[in-house]
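User: Quick one: structure for sequence A, then sequence B.

Assistant: Sequence A:
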Amino acid sequence: MADVAKVIELVGSSSTGWEDAAARAVKAAAVTLHGITGIEVTNMTAKVENGEIVNYKTTVKVAFGVDG
């Protein structure tokens, strides 16, 4: 594990749920970041149309080690 970590904030989106939205954010981050060590969920919101949730959004802080 690196002695220093960097944390970035991302928002994932899903039509099926908040957990899937968080997973999508992590999966997208893993394309360009290596060494992801964890996430913190900081916010969950949803878009509602006609009384039904149609889109879930999860804000996550992603931590990863800094090389060096």
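Sequence B:
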Amino acid sequence: MKALKKFRIYFMMCILGMLIINSCEKTEEDEVIPEFGLLITETNDSTIVIEDGNTDTYTIALKSQPEANVTITISPDLQTTVSKSEIIFTPNDWNVAKVITVEAVNDTIPENYHTGDISHVSASTDESYNGINFNFTVDIIDNEFHLIISGSRTGHYCIVDPYSGADLAEPKPEVHYVGQLCMGYLSHKAIILSPPGSGTGIAVIYSCDALTGENVFQIVSEDDWWVMNIDGSPVAPKIAFAAKDAIDWNLHIHSINEDATGYSQLTFHEEGVECPTKVSTKLIAADYPAWSPDGSEIAFSGHLREINTNYAHSAIMIMDNDGGNKTVLYSEPVEEPWYRDICWTKDGQFLIFSVAEGSIRAVKVLHIGTKTVTDIHSQMEVGGLGVQNHWTSPIENKIVYMLISPGGSDLYIINFQTSGSNFTITGGPTKLTDELAVGHGYQQPVWAHWDGN
């Protein structure tokens, strides 16, 4: 019995020893193998930067402890720059994330939304951390990006991508009606003409957040002005507007800041102006203001009368942004046809305008230096449809305009080039929007610069 008992004890001890050995072997087999690599974490799972604007950051760490120092070489492409071109991790700080700041290269090329690539390559005497490659893409918003704002339907307007024609937004601000509109400074605000309420045809100026239509703000009062046309400055939060005053209904041009401060009257009834004919001339009315690309001048349509004969003229004029140095650039001995849709080419050398000729409004180009006038209307027509409400891009040689067809209206774009005093349309019109597909037409497009914010 004693022998049997000793055997049982011995046997159980052997079994227990085998279990311990097996347990140890199983633990070694199940041991987690370290994961080697770079741990790159983007802010909010993306990296987005703006040319000459917002930067963004991401962090780098290692996924496991190395046996030796690890050097990471960071190489962006030509679209971005980074705050560090090289970082080093040691076995002691391998898990301490290092912050990298990304900035967009501010070039002068219109690129719309585009991307950049940043590569990361590791080097180490630890073979597990030698030669690791990791790339990721940065989203870049171009500060040469521009937007088209277009009337759409009562109470709405559209923000249109000038490359794809897609509606980026269709805001509905809380105004009585969306009439003529333009972009404010850097396209942060939409500037809108609307009656202050029903039962009146008088329009005043409102602003709202351009991309949402929120934060509606009335800039001028219906007790002072009946506003006819507006344009936003490209260099400051300032508006030029043509309005009839509430006292004698004279139509003249004024300026005011987007926050309703800094009001100034720029043209005056019967003020003397310089005319190329050297005949004494007075300005009776002014309309359709258009800021120059550098914001230093305003072009406009003027109604003139010769002082001695009272002979009427319609004229395209320019003045300094404070109303000084009014000069007639182009004049015809007729009073009725206003020159409309006046806009500048991006180089500030040409004005494009429309004028009534029979049953159409012909589109023409005026070289400011030589006063040469070129008719481009026939090159912009499509299928006999009349051209309306043209506007130039602030950063490219392009014109957007509206064609009205039975049952709707769409936007078209046409390219041009300039050389000295020569203005040439290049290629034919390209249809930008499709009102049948989206279920609404497009009206009165205005092109403006946007800083991406």
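Residues 146-449 form a domain with the Neuraminidase fold (CATH 2.120.10.30). The longest helix spans residues 2-29.

User: Thanks, that's what I needed.
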